[in-house]
Amino acid sequence: MIDNKNILLGVSGGIACYKTLELCSRLVKKNVNIKVIMTESAKEFVRPVTFETMAKGLVYSDMWEGHHEEVHHIELPKWADLMLIAPASASTIGKMANGIADNFLIASYLACQKDVIIAPSMNTQMLLNPATQRNLQTLREYGVKVIAPESGVLACNTVGDGRMEEPKNIVKYLEDYFTDKDLVGKKIIVSAGPTIEPIDYVRYITNHSSGKMGYNIANEAKKRGADVILVSGPVNPFEINGINKIEVKTNEEMKNAIEENFDDANALIMAAAPVDYRPSTVSDRKIKKSGESINFEFIENLDILKYFGSKKKDQTIIGFAAETDDLIENANKKLNVKNADYIVANDLKKEGAGFNTDTNVASFISKDGVKDLEIMSKKELANEILNLIR
Ligand code: PMT
């Protein structure tokens, strides 16, 4: 987790310095401790006092100041869990690659034994110049991680590669960097969202599942290094990175998508809310209004969780129970009938739990008993659920 990490933030000269202020603010909101080093050029773009305010601490830039207390360019890297240089200008990248410690930032970089990440920012031609490309390659070979600049309109009114990556994406990169990769080598299938069952050419039945619970599980599993297969019913778009997503509509499609991936999976997490019943017949045209009431016969759908519970070998199977009454009793029944290892029971009537909320209140039910959890974000609950995987 990024919470309470120490980041030594180097800021070199470039118009993207203004974006680094937003980056600072986003990191501070996530309880990251930041110490800032600015080059003299960076101070031409943004005054140190602005960074001091955003990062809530002193800005360092003078090699010759305050050495009676400690040698700052040696002590700051020791304090840091990570050094991030954003923006990294062509000149700073060149000095890093060649060990030219003629300013406080590069001296600190050379003294740094922690990982270093850079977010380059410069004009396209400067970026494409063979000298810059060679310097970037050298840094990669030294183990420096490079957050590739993106393409767009640049400050020099040209369009091309060279824009520093957006602060929100740099934060994501850092969150990913600080996440323990304890699920590497595990293939995890996560189902999310509702299914739908058609009634006629235009109508269908479904439920209120937004997919938030399932998508959070998939995203957190991916961050922790798992190979994630996300089987998603129809939901509003969510951001996902590097996840193999299979979009489905009906129960049958959801079951088939899981089946294709189940045999070599390590875990199945059924956070989806599949529809329990479907109409016995589906009209291939729009049913017209007749001025009279209408009856439909519904037949029961396959219980997907139960089906895979009966087929499981070494997989950890985690189901949910969405209940309005007798939560624990019903969840216990589901644990046994569906042959799951765990049931995550959520009470749909509880404040902050259930459909379309950003939080959930859950209890883990297993053969070992019941573990009640506090209200927490669906992201936090996702990580608690992933901790259950063997
Ligand atoms: O998507 P969100 O808006 O974030 O909401 C989250 C959630 C409430 C949908 C989620 O937390 C949740 O509880 N998902 C399970 C919903 C559900 O279908 O519960 P159930 O008690 O009816 O089913 C029990 C288990 O069997 C579930 O794991 C379900 O995925 C599975 N099931 C149900 C019916 C069916 N035909 N096949 C199944 O596999």
TrEMBL record:
<dbReference type="InterPro" id="IPR003382">
    <property type="entry name" value="Flavoprotein"/>
</dbReference>
<dbReference type="GO" id="GO:0004632">
    <property type="term" value="F:phosphopantothenate--cysteine ligase activity"/>
</dbReference>
<comment type="similarity">
    <text>In the C-terminal section; belongs to the PPC synthetase family.</text>
</comment>
<keyword id="KW-0479">Metal-binding</keyword>
<feature type="region of interest" description="Phosphopantothenoylcysteine decarboxylase">
    <location>
        <begin position="1"/>
        <end position="187"/>
    </location>
</feature>
<dbReference type="InterPro" id="IPR035929">
    <property type="entry name" value="CoaB-like_sf"/>
</dbReference>
<dbReference type="Pfam" id="PF04127">
    <property type="entry name" value="DFP"/>
</dbReference>
<dbReference type="GO" id="GO:0046872">
    <property type="term" value="F:metal ion binding"/>
</dbReference>
<comment type="pathway">
    <text>Cofactor biosynthesis; coenzyme A biosynthesis; CoA from (R)-pantothenate: step 3/5.</text>
</comment>
<feature type="domain" description="DNA/pantothenate metabolism flavoprotein C-terminal">
    <location>
        <begin position="183"/>
        <end position="389"/>
    </location>
</feature>
<dbReference type="Pfam" id="PF02441">
    <property type="entry name" value="Flavoprotein"/>
</dbReference>
<dbReference type="GO" id="GO:0010181">
    <property type="term" value="F:FMN binding"/>
</dbReference>
<feature type="binding site">
    <location>
        <position position="286"/>
    </location>
    <ligand>
        <name>CTP</name>
    </ligand>
</feature>
<dbReference type="GO" id="GO:0015937">
    <property type="term" value="P:coenzyme A biosynthetic process"/>
</dbReference>
<comment type="function">
    <text>Catalyzes two sequential steps in the biosynthesis of coenzyme A. In the first step cysteine is conjugated to 4'-phosphopantothenate to form 4-phosphopantothenoylcysteine. In the second step the latter compound is decarboxylated to form 4'-phosphopantotheine.</text>
</comment>
<keyword id="KW-0288">FMN</keyword>
<feature type="region of interest" description="Phosphopantothenate--cysteine ligase">
    <location>
        <begin position="188"/>
        <end position="390"/>
    </location>
</feature>
<feature type="binding site">
    <location>
        <position position="276"/>
    </location>
    <ligand>
        <name>CTP</name>
    </ligand>
</feature>
<dbReference type="GO" id="GO:0004633">
    <property type="term" value="F:phosphopantothenoylcysteine decarboxylase activity"/>
</dbReference>
<keyword id="KW-0210">Decarboxylase</keyword>
<keyword id="KW-0460">Magnesium</keyword>
<feature type="binding site">
    <location>
        <position position="338"/>
    </location>
    <ligand>
        <name>CTP</name>
    </ligand>
</feature>
<dbReference type="InterPro" id="IPR036551">
    <property type="entry name" value="Flavin_trans-like"/>
</dbReference>
<feature type="binding site">
    <location>
        <position position="334"/>
    </location>
    <ligand>
        <name>CTP</name>
    </ligand>
</feature>
<feature type="binding site">
    <location>
        <position position="320"/>
    </location>
    <ligand>
        <name>CTP</name>
    </ligand>
</feature>
<dbReference type="GO" id="GO:0071513">
    <property type="term" value="C:phosphopantothenoylcysteine decarboxylase complex"/>
</dbReference>
<feature type="active site" description="Proton donor">
    <location>
        <position position="156"/>
    </location>
</feature>
<keyword id="KW-0436">Ligase</keyword>
<comment type="similarity">
    <text>In the N-terminal section; belongs to the HFCD (homo-oligomeric flavin containing Cys decarboxylase) superfamily.</text>
</comment>
<dbReference type="InterPro" id="IPR005252">
    <property type="entry name" value="CoaBC"/>
</dbReference>
<feature type="domain" description="Flavoprotein">
    <location>
        <begin position="5"/>
        <end position="176"/>
    </location>
</feature>
<protein>
    <recommendedName>
        <fullName>Coenzyme A biosynthesis bifunctional protein CoaBC</fullName>
        <ecNumber>4.1.1.36</ecNumber>
        <ecNumber>6.3.2.5</ecNumber>
    </recommendedName>
</protein>
<comment type="pathway">
    <text>Cofactor biosynthesis; coenzyme A biosynthesis; CoA from (R)-pantothenate: step 2/5.</text>
</comment>
<dbReference type="GO" id="GO:0015941">
    <property type="term" value="P:pantothenate catabolic process"/>
</dbReference>
<keyword id="KW-0511">Multifunctional enzyme</keyword>
<comment type="function">
    <text>Catalyzes two steps in the biosynthesis of coenzyme A. In the first step cysteine is conjugated to 4'-phosphopantothenate to form 4-phosphopantothenoylcysteine, in the latter compound is decarboxylated to form 4'-phosphopantotheine.</text>
</comment>
<keyword id="KW-0456">Lyase</keyword>
<keyword id="KW-0285">Flavoprotein</keyword>
<dbReference type="InterPro" id="IPR007085">
    <property type="entry name" value="DNA/pantothenate-metab_flavo_C"/>
</dbReference>
